Amino acid sequence: MKAQKTRSQEKIFHLLKTLARSLSAQDLYVELRRRKQTIGLATVYRSLEALKLQGVVQVRTLPSGESLYSLVQQDQHHLTCVHCGQSIPIDECPVHDLEERLEQSHHFKVYYHTLEFFGLCDRCHSLHREPLSN
Question: Does the record bear DNA-binding in its keywords (predicted)?
Answer without folding.
Answer: yes
